[in-house]
Amino acid sequence: MTGKPFVLIGVNSDPVDRAKKAVAENELQWRNFWAGPQATRGPIPTAWGVTGWPTIVVLDADMRIHYRGHDGNKATKVAEALVEKLVAGQEGKQ
Amino acid sequence: MRLIPVFTLALLAMPALAQDVTQDGAEPQAPRHDPAAAMRDLRNEQQQIYAKWREEVQAIQKQMKEAAEDPEGGKKPVKAFPMRPDLSPLVGKAQNYAKTFANSEDAVPFLVWIVQNGSPNKDAMRDALETILETHANSSGVAALAPMLPYLGRMISADIGDRAMDVFVASSNADVRASALLVRHGTTIDSAPLESPKYAAAKQELLEAAKEASEAVRKKVDTAINVREHYGVGVIAKDIIGTDLDGEEFKLSDYKGRVIFLDFWGDW
Description:
The structure holds two protein chains of two kinds.
Chain A (H helix, E strand, L loop, with lengths): L5 E7 L3 H10 L5 E4 L8 H5 L7 E5 L5 E5 L2 H22 L1
Chain B lengths: L2 H16 L16 H35 L18 H13 L7 H10 L4 H14 L13 H7 L2 H12 L4 H11 L1 H6 L5 H15 L3 H17 L9 E3 L5 E3 L7 E7 L3
Antiparallel strand pairs in B: 1-2
Helix pairs in contact in B: 2-3, 3-4, 4-5, 5-7, 6-7, 8-10, 8-11, 10-11
């Protein structure tokens, strides 16, 4: 997805030190919101009604939700299709 | 001299008087007429089994780590760890408590416990669930089983799974009814188009059932609908304004214009 209009954003529910260690050890490149000291019951997971981890939400360029669930493969396919459509739309305008 | 055997007999009888025994006399139980103490007893033993299971899992994980670090480690067999603790030793005990308090509301927590924890003992789970469906379907305590309704068919048998859903939905207890409807309409609430008649009907039935339910169940129903209508498929998501792991503020909408893969995760 490098160079394409795509971004991966995390919402991490660990204590900050542990989250940073996981990011460093796994060489994670994406930016993360921190869920706060209440962890899985922090304001972001609570507002979004997340009760199972990991939960993945795929949003289009207008922030409309196209997928919400726990299946990484399915989420990836939805994201790839959206990126393809977005790129095709951008190329069509040029 | 004749007094000694009588006194001895009395002494021998004392433990039996002080402590109830199970119907087969095999093991001591918490005092009769005290279901709360009996449930504490059961949960204490459950916690002890969980603690042993955690120790076992941690020991196996340690072995796996050592094997991974050892160049010859791949040749050493490592035991697979059980995915959940074996609670089967407690099922008989829970059954005895359920019998002790049979035909009263006090039996409900034990019957619910058996359905929740009895796997893989299908017979025990079936017996407990049958008793719940026949005798206790209007007891608020059985609402705790609602999240299991989609799985009871697979865990016990298809016929009882479907029947349990029908009985729960027809319960006169609002908590049981609303909790079951939340499961029955779960897929519709989660994924049917918001403007569809199917979604509207499911939402109306849920809100109607929740009106008479406890605050906790009402909150679950409200949350499910709120999440669907503000954070569900087809909806433009509300922005997230938060801080990153370095404490720097940013917004989800900073990335508007790109496809966003939002991953709620943790390293546990």
